[in-house]
Amino acid sequence: MADGSSRKTFTIAVVGPYGTPTTGSFLRSSNIWHVIKGLKGVRVIYLPITYPVEVLANLRLITSSDLIIVSGVSPWISAIIVFFSILFKKHVIIDVHGSPFYEHLMAGRVSIFRKMLFFVTEHLTYRLSSSIILASKGLLSIISAYLKVRVNDKRIYIVPNSLNYLFIKIINKLLSIDKRTLRNYIMRKLKLDEDSKVILVPLPNVFISNILAYELLRKIVNEINSMGNIKVIVTGIVKSESISKGVITTGYLPYPEYAALLLNSSAELLPYPENAVSGGVRNKVLEAGYCGVPIISTRSGVLHSNARAWIHYIPLEDTSIKDLLNVINDVGLYVSSNMRSLVINEYSLNSFAREILKVLKQELSQ
To answer: What is the rounded distance in angstroms from the CA atom of residue 274 to the CA atom of residue 131?
Structure first.
């Protein structure tokens, strides 16, 4: 950039999902925006985009930016933006949270048309991109083996997910409220007995893996009903039918209410089957870990994290649902304390910020 009063402000556009409802995709993209928005001499704009027509509506802002970071949007949105970035000779970085093609392929529930749509848009996006950020090392193998993208001629960075800045802010505010007052509020809000023990199951239904987890939950509801005064609260997923008298589906909760419910839960249950894969460590794992809430999970639930069974979480495969309360009482404090340390040490916002700033430094030196 030139010196003097005529110096042009360097503009970075972060393209990501809308913040309502608050999904895991938004949490990562908003973290990127949060990390770089305070950089000196840099103008940072966040452009929420869901539909292709919104790319056209924001095309002037996108193409007038010096750097474009695409994070957490659908593959076809990414492909369209990459196309325009090449057309207008713009520097673009693709931040990859996961692979819809691979996730649906593993789930085994995708039509030929939808599978081809995912494959073509993801393949073209990564093939035409020179700079890619991945949420896990596992994604590197996926885009190479399954999406047939040559990775050797790409600048590829591995930046794991982290706690979100909004979540930390909300939790700090909630912790300043009297515990009893907060519990009374959230239990009344959900029309629950204040003495009920809550097991939280966060399953936003925009992701195929969460639908698979919900289906596995349906298979173990009879055992859940035998646990006494337990209420299993499923957030995110929208289901009108009641699968059990002990299971309540709330749909999406505002982020502060979800955080309040998490703080007042006896445990978080993540019943992901083996084919319910993800692109990076799940945000719900980081959130529960940070709050010191014991996690009961399958191996797939804690995928891409360094969590170990019986050290950081209670393995659902090795635990009888009927004995779940006893197990939580016996080892809940131990595993939740270890998981909190793991999250703070390895998945903090500061760690994420350092890695993102390294990426920017590397990219802007090209």
So the answer is: 31
